[in-house]
Amino acid sequence: MQPGVCSSPRCPSASDSFPLSHLDPAECGSETSVDQQKQERAEFSTMSSVVSFYFSYLLCLCLGFVCVACVCYWNSQWRGGFAWDGSTLQFNWHPVLMVSGLVVLYGYGAVLYRVPLTWGQNKLPWKLLHAGVMLLCLVLSVLGLCAVFNFHNAKHTPNLYSLHSWIGICTTALFAMQWAVGVAGFLLPCSPMALRKLLKPVHVWMGASILSLSIVACISGINEKLFFVLRGNTTQAYASLPSEALFGNSLGVLLVVFGLVVLMILSNQKWQRPESRPEDMTYRPLLQEDN
Amino acid sequence: MQPGVCSSPRCPSASDSFPLSHLDPAECGSETSVDQQKQERAEFSTMSSVVSFYFSYLLCLCLGFVCVACVCYWNSQWRGGFAWDGSTLQFNWHPVLMVSGLVVLYGYGAVLYRVPLTWGQNKLPWKLLHAGVMLLCLVLSVLGLCAVFNFHNAKHTPNLYSLHSWIGICTTALFAMQWAVGVAGFLLPCSPMALRKLLKPVHVWMGASILSLSIVACISGINEKLFFVLRGNTTQAYASLPSEALFGNSLGVLLVVFGLVVLMILSNQKWQRPESRPEDMTYRPLLQEDN
């Protein structure tokens, strides 16, 4: 038997149920018991890696869902609910849309390529899904900005004066640029492979930075909102930590934990999608794809 | 000549002036012109990598210095200066010490291992310097917390109620844990090499996360402070963007840019210190070190 060529049923191929098996190329072609032990250890390590990925991914999904549920509950329970009429009820859409779009859905979209189940398949549909999810995030974020701009304009309050607003608007602008450059660089047929290779690490790094900036904007925004609305009588003052303050602070902590889990998934080298096959780097219309 | 053994003056060794040369092991042992061209390209790539590192490092140093200067200037120029008497002048130490310790000096300490000039030398003195700088950061941060606790206690204001304070105290606690685990794991002689290998990626990731959390705490803190102090008459209200507001917001943006530059340096694989030699992983007292 040639070294590196595997005929054993133990040896998984790239499209097998353990997609992380590419990480240890030494696991095939062994015939001695030492090599079999090595192979078993490699399979165990692969399996552990997949299990720990799915545990982190499930945690990410649950945390994101809880964050969206909490921000909706906060604004329904304590802030009077939602409307689109220039009142404070319109403002309430701002935190909901920014948390849902610029943090949670963005985080889900960012870790999409890390899901091992997608690795055996052609990359293009996943690229389109990634771009689609990110476009939805961008639309939600812009709607969230419209909510606060309309509210300010109706009250004749200046826009974009606080540090929170400066960070928030820069983050959304960076995100819009990132999306446009991403589509132009990775989806347009005229984009050369050399440019894609150059762009990829920048795109990944910029994506993680935008998520971090979103978290910065959210935390400063929640902190600012709680100081705004909880400055009445002593029992409701922020410093006396009424239930709304505890809930808002906990939402902030949850958002930070969600962001850290997403960044941990993104930064783990073992969980990165294997390098694309050359045919994935060139553009083919969706209908011509294998999958 | 054996492949991989280099006798050419073009071929740099690990301790040469281009310490990033370890990145391309194929650059030695070539005798044909094609190999020479490859070698020249590798040297050019190495040189570019070193130059771009030092450009980023200089940017990081300058941005950090400007951040510290700005936070000092803000509190001297607009907030009345400094004292340690329970008054608002004592509070003014809080932003100065947190920005200096938990962000700027922390950032400098985090990128210490990335400086190529240190790679040809024994790692232990740099480990001790890293631990020492981080201890200084921790002391400054704790002093910064003392400043705000004393101020609150003197005014009978509750401590730790805002989201800013929750994030800030968690960040400092995580940093203290990270420092203790770092010293126990990487400096104590009884720490086994297997544990060090396991700990290293967690330590690096946690270090980057703590810096991100520090930035989150700083931005929410500056935002909160500006809302607190600029709510007087209309010309000095935050919404009318007086000079203090513009200055404070700009400080916030600078801190974010500093954080992103540090995280970019930390995340760039090309700029990572080469793997330690086995003798660096075991403990030897400083006086016995080569350097």
Would you kindly provide a written description of the structure presented here, covering whatever features stand out?
Two copies of one chain form a homodimer. With 291 residues, chain A is mainly alpha-helical. Chain A has one domain: Up-down Bundle (Four Helix Bundle (Hemerythrin (Met), subunit A)). Helices cover 65% and strands 0% of the residues of chain A. Chain A is built from eight helices and no strands. In chain A, helix 3 (93-110) packs antiparallel against helix 4 (123-154) and helix 3 runs parallel beside helix 7. Chain A is globular and about 80 Å long. Chain A binds chain B through residues 157-158, 161-164, 166-167, 170, 205, 208-209, 212-213, 215-216, 219-220, 222-224, 226-227, 238-241, 245, 248-249, 252-253, 256, 260, 263-264, 267, and chain B through 157-158, 161-164, 166-167, 170, 205, 208-209, 212-213, 215-216, 219-220, 222-224, 226-228, 238-241, 245, 248-249, 252-253, 256, 260, 263-264, 267.
CATH architecture of chain A: Up-down Bundle
Uncertain stretches of chain A: 1-29, 279-291
Report helical residue fraction of chain A.
55-70%
H-E order of chain A? HHHHHHHH
The number of E-state strands of chain A comes to 0
CA-atom Rg of chain A in angstroms: 23 Å
Whole-number average pLDDT of chain A?
86
Most extensive interface: A-B, 37 and 38 residues
What's the end-to-end separation of chain A, in Å?
Answer: 33 Å
The CATH class designation of chain A is Mainly Alpha
Tally of domains of chain A: 1
Task: Report the β-strand fraction of chain A as a percent range.
Answer: under 5%
